[in-house]
Inverse folding.
């Protein structure tokens, strides 16, 4: 398959990589095609905040040279998107916030440095909720992202989920073979589910946080988003690794995740947590979950009903701890040293003017909540209590993983909703994270795999949660789920269609 | 000596506790690789971490931790093998992250003790509550431009130890002695240079007053006092103020105050109501600090001898007095100098020379022990020349002055100037014979019983011999000739 044929951008990351190594096409050809698709579709999807075409082509040429020299890294020549929360040296990094609208970091994040080391080509910086705070990519200062999927018979713009909404939409539409995401309470898994792609939040400490703009430090974790489980395996293998610059990074070898995708599931015990049967959950979600259980049973797994008794406290606890950390992490955006500044007569006025103009409503809301829960007189009742509950949630997982190998749950309580259906109550919005937050609180790895579509043709994902640093079992089970689901549905807006249209005209 | 303030309503005692901020001696800052050295053009010792850039993360500097542990061990304090870093949140232009990383709930060092000595020789123990590690902030400069403030982040992120005392101090003198002793220990340990004028050591002073038998009354905190003299003056002024407030029927409010050395008074900086809510919480970027017990034991084994132990040893080994040992151990360099000079020699001779002529020469030349004009080895060589009778004590003083002026070795000076003591009895006898012949009248007086003239004859003989006569031989020969 040549890179300029219409379906080139529909290949999986692994297919693209193998084609590059076989020299079936060059990275420059592939990157040129991807950039053309971005140019055609991005004005509508708004998945990329910044497109780095010249840099991408230069990286592609380098990758081609490396491939020709037989020195191809595991990501050599593969065009991907980078969530605009990862600092990229010399390339504007905004966190989708006005306060960093013109910020150009003089340093590179460890995750993007690892991808570059392995030859990846960066198409640009993908859109997100401001400072990764949101579940619909509706809080970006650079405008919302449109989900490339459509409800049957409707052109209504749907949200791609959040906060890694730009990455999810780009990958679903074929504007890149993969993209980096970050996940604090579900920001990789929920948009992956909404956009019909795969995403994994690895164990906390697996990927370095150095150079990734912080939202909630004890929860933030980078991970890959791609169209297949194997694609995520390749990409995570490149992103992960110990980094002495991040004290919470864990020093243990990165296994061969791609090899793990082919492992047998014989004898694996899959836990079905009864607390995830949320009241009011749509029947379609329940049905796809049951379908997933059946597939894994057919694949040779033993299905076990389990209990994670503190699940119901997950969301409330999360919305204390994450804002608390965010209120402190975002104090550095004060207009003094970098980023936007709005002058004032006094230092306090400078702060107030800068932060009022620089932060959007949701960011301000979380800073205020976080400041409140850490305040004298409230700390014990909120933050300290939340930390104790967090320990209990962690213990739930430790206990259950003494008995089962993996947990299977829905990823999100619904399919993608329309941009104009955004709930007016922020708490309703927070409920999107109800199934993803507990794994974040515990720090264990979790993956979302597309499992089917709802009655309106929108994708639904299933979530697999694993033991600490046992991403390999997640990749094995995820691959089995993927094979069983045979998910061949495609979104309405696709790069390959644009390319075909372009060739036809 | 008990310190009391006599008020109108009675006698008041003062209660003082000190929080000393000591800058850790280290190559790099507490959480970044940037240089921690003092000086340097503004904003030249700043990493992206120190400037609080997005995505930057702290990584604790092992050497700073070791310095804190050494200090704790030097204060006979409990070392907490598990401690934790917390964020202290507040906004200020020279605080780049919007928070200071400190240790609030779980400090690295727990309770310890310092023994202080007062002018009358009395000693007291002052309790140490805790020692914790924290980052310094940058520096705001408001006087460089009429409309703008400038920020220098060189200091931002430099490691500080905050050393908190118990409220055990009862007089300005004790406070001064405490800070001096603490500084001495830190310098011995090499964990802080103690230069208060450069700001590498500063004190927050907590003062309250009470009448006999009372519980503690409300205290005020005097921030950032940067000399020992000011610490003592600030306590005096603040205690006096509080007594006056209480005695005029008022109430002392818990507040933060500043000491104005020009006016000799403290003034309010902010009241408790205006106090920041620092919203402390564990820093999620850092794991708990867990020390290996073996590592701590290794640091303990490699600690230098500390002032109290050194003092006791000098008294035992060199027979110096309590006062002398205090002077000799004031700085480690002095003690080292002294021991190099005195080891194996007549220790009384060595002590007198070091404390006498040598210190006088330092004073006169304005030099410190570290760049002394005379090395310990040279002084020791000079004393060796006295001991082996190459020169006498009086000539030695001349030689020493020349050593100070020229830096030459004593033997070279002695040889160049021909100052070797004359022990040739023939030459001595000849000189004496001449002196006695020239002073026949005095000889007659001496022989008629005016014994005191003996000293005159010694002086004249030494003069005749240009001071080089061996005093013992001169004495002996004179007695013999006068008896003839």
């Amino acid at each position: 398959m040549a890179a300029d044929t219409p379906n080139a951008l529909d290949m999986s990351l692994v297919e693209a990589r193998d084609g590059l190594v076989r020299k079936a096409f060059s990275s420059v050809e592939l990157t040129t095609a991807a950039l053309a698709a971005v140019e055609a579709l991005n004005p509508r999807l708004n998945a990329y905040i910044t497109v780095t075409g010249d840099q991408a082509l230069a990286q592609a040429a380098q990758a081609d040279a490396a491939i020709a020299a037989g020195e191809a890294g595991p990501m050599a020549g593969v065009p991907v998107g980078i969530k605009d929360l990862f600092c990229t040296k010399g390339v504007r990094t905004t966190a989708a916030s006005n306060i960093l609208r013109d910020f150009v970091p003089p340093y590179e994040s460890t995750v993007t440095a690892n991808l570059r080391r392995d030859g990846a080509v960066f198409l640009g910086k993908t859109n997100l909720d401001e400072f990764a705070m949101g579940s619909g990519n509706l809080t970006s200062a650079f405008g919302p992202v449109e989900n490339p999927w459509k409800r049957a018979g409707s052109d209504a713009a749907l949200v791609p989920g959040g906060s890694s909404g730009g990455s999810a939409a780009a990958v679903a539409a074929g504007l890149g073979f993969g993209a980096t995401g970050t996940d604090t309470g579900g920001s990789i898994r929920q948009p992956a589910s909404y956009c019909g792609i795969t995403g994994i939040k690895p164990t906390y400490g697996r990927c370095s946080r150095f150079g990734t703009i912080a939202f909630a430090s004890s929860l933030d974790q980078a991970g890959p988003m791609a169209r297949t489980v194997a694609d995520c395996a390749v990409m995570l293998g490149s992103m992960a690794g110990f980094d002495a610059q991040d004290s919470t990074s864990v020093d243990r070898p990165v296994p061969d995740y791609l090899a793990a995708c082919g492992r047998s599931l014989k004898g694996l015990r899959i836990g079905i947590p009864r607390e995830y049967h949320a009241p009011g959950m749509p029947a379609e979600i329940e049905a796809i979950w049951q379908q997933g259980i059946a597939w894994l049973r057919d694949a040779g797994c033993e299905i076990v009903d389990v209990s994670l008794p503190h699940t119901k406290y997950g969301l409330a606890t999360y919305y204390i701890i994450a804002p608390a950390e965010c209120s402190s992490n975002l104090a550095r955006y004060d207009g003094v040293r970098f980023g936007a500044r709005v002058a004032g007569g006094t230092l306090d006025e400078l702060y107030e003017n800068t932060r009022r103009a620089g932060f959007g409503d949701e960011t301000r809301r979380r800073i205020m909540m976080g400041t409140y829960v850490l305040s004298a007189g409230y700390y014990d009742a909120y933050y300290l209590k939340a930390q104790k509950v967090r320990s209990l949630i962690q213990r739930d997982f430790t206990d259950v993983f003494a008995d089962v190998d993996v947990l299977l749950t829905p990823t999100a309580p619904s399919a993608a909703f329309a941009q104009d259906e955004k709930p007016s109550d922020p708490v309703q919005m927070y409920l999107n994270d109800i199934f993803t937050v507990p794994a974040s609180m515990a720090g264990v790895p979790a993956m979302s795999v597309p499992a089917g579509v709802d009655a309106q043709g929108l994708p639904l994902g299933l979530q697999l949660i694993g033991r600490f640093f046992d991403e390999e079992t997640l990749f094995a089970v995820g691959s089995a789920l993927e094979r069983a689901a045979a998910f061949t549905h495609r979104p309405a807006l696709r790069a390959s269609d644009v390319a075909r249209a372009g060739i036809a005209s | 000596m008990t310190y009391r303030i006599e008020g109108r309503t009675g006698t008041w005692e003062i209660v003082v506790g000190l929080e000393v901020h000591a800058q850790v001696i280290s190559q790099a800052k507490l959480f970044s690789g940037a240089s921690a050295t003092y000086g340097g053009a503004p904003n030249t010792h700043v990493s992206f971490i120190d400037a609080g850039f997005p995505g930057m993360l702290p990584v604790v500097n092992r050497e700073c931790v070791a310095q804190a542990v050494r200090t704790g061990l030097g204060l006979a304090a409990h070392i907490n093998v598990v401690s934790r870093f917390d964020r202290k949140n507040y906004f200020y232009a020279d605080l780049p992250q919007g928070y200071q990383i400190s240790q609030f709930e779980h400090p690295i060092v727990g309770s310890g003790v310092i023994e202080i000595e007062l002018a009358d020789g009395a000693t007291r123990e002052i309790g140490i509550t805790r020692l914790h590690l924290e980052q310094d902030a940058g520096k705001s400069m408001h006087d460089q431009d009429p409309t703008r403030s400038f920020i220098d982040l060189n200091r931002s992120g430099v490691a500080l130890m905050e050393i908190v005392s118990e409220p055990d101090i009862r007089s300005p003198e004790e406070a001064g002695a405490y800070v001096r002793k603490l500084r001495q220990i830190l310098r011995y340990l090499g964990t802080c240079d103690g230069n208060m004028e450069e700001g590498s050591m500063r004190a927050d002073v907590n003062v309250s007053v009470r009448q006999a038998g009372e519980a503690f009354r409300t205290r005020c905190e005097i921030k950032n006092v940067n000399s020992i003299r000011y610490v003592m003056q600030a306590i005096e002024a603040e205690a006096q103020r509080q007594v006056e407030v209480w005695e005029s029927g008022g109430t002392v409010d818990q507040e933060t105050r500043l000491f104005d050395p020009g006016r000799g008074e403290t003034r309010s900086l902010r009241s408790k109501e205006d106090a920041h809510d620092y919203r402390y919480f564990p820093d999620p970027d850092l794991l708990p600090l867990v020390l290996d017990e073996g590592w701590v034991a290794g640091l303990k084994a490699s600690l230098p001898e500390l002032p109290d132990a050194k003092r006791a040893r000098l008294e035992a080994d060199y027979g110096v007095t309590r006062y002398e040992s205090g002077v000799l151990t004031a700085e480690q360099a002095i003690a080292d100098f002294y021991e190099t000079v005195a080891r194996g020699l007549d220790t009384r001779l060595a002590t007198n020379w070091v404390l006498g002529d040598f210190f006088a020469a330092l004073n006169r030349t304005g030099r410190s022990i570290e760049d002394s004009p005379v090395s310990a080895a040279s002084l020791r060589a000079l004393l060796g020349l006295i001991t082996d009778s190459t020169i006498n004590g009086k000539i030695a003083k001349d030689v020493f002055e020349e050593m100070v002026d020229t830096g030459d070795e004593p033997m070279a000076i002695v040889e160049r100037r021909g100052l070797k003591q004359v022990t040739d009895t023939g030459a001595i006898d000849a000189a004496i014979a001449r002196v006695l012949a020239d002073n026949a009248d005095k000889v007659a007086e001496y022989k008629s019983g005016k014994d005191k003239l003996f000293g005159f004859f010694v002086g004249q003989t030494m003069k005749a011999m240009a001071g080089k006569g061996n005093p013992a031989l001169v004495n002996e020969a004179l007695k013999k000739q006068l008896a003839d």
User: Anything to note?
Assistant: Chain A touches chain B at residues 86-87, 93, 95, 100, 103, 105-107, 109, 209-214, 216-218, 244-248, 324-325, 327-328, 330-332, 334, 336-338, 347-348, 351, 371, 374-376, 379, 383 (CB under 8 Å). Chain A has 17 helices and eleven strands. The mean pLDDT of chain A is 95. Residues 232 and 457 of chain A are 24 Å apart (CA to CA).
